Amino acid sequence: MSKESETSPLPAIAAALKREREQAGLSISELARKAGVAKSTLSQLEAGVGNPSLESLWALAMGLNLPFSRLLDPPVVPVQVIRASQGMATRATDAAYEAVLLSACPPRVRRDIYRIDFEPGISKISLPHAAGTVEHVMLLSGRASVGPDGKTIELLPGDYASYPADTAHSYEALEPNTRAILMMDYT
């Protein structure tokens, strides 16, 4: 687990916890009791301090009756790139295990997942999909350039990018045996 993946999730967690707790109409004491987490721990997390474990965050998400990813939702940006060594990492306390949320599926969205294999040569040009469609690409092997026309991003293995797919976009392998996971969100 590299130092580069140390981008702190605390500001996003603090904002999300407070927002979701207040929307649920719960006090800090009530949520702490429901989640089985110390009130002081929850107070610190909402203040943006502390070192939350994966287990504590999971318990809080369950106490709020939310998907875990809702507590790590990054701000929405039209094009997002997360390099293999970056991202908000949440670590387990009892194992050498960390989770980096790349994308949370918004409510009432359909998500399709594909594996794509492509080779250098002619770029795959994709016409715009339905309004609101977003694509997520995680490069598994090779090297590729993907994204909206005029704003393509070069990806290396482990890198992730998301972008609006309701405009023309393309996929170009820059090395042989390029493979990626493609996820498409439709509203």
Automatic annotation (TrEMBL):
Entry-linked SMART domains: HTH_XRE (SM00530)
Q: Which UniProt keywords apply?
A: DNA-binding
| InterPro entries hit by this protein | Cro/C1-type_HTH (IPR001387), Lambda_DNA-bd_dom_sf (IPR010982), RmlC-like_jellyroll (IPR014710), RmlC_Cupin_sf (IPR011051), TransReg_Diox_bact_type (IPR050807), UGlyAH_Cupin_dom (IPR008579)
**Database matches in SUPFAM superfamilies:** lambda repressor-like DNA-binding domains, RmlC-like cupins
Q: Which GO terms describe its cellular component?
A: cytosol
Q: Name one GO molecular function term.
A: DNA binding
Key word Magnesium present in the record? no
Please state every residue range assigned to the domain named HTH cro/C1-type.
17-71
Signal sequence, renumbered to the chain: none
Report what the protein is called.
HTH cro/C1-type domain-containing protein
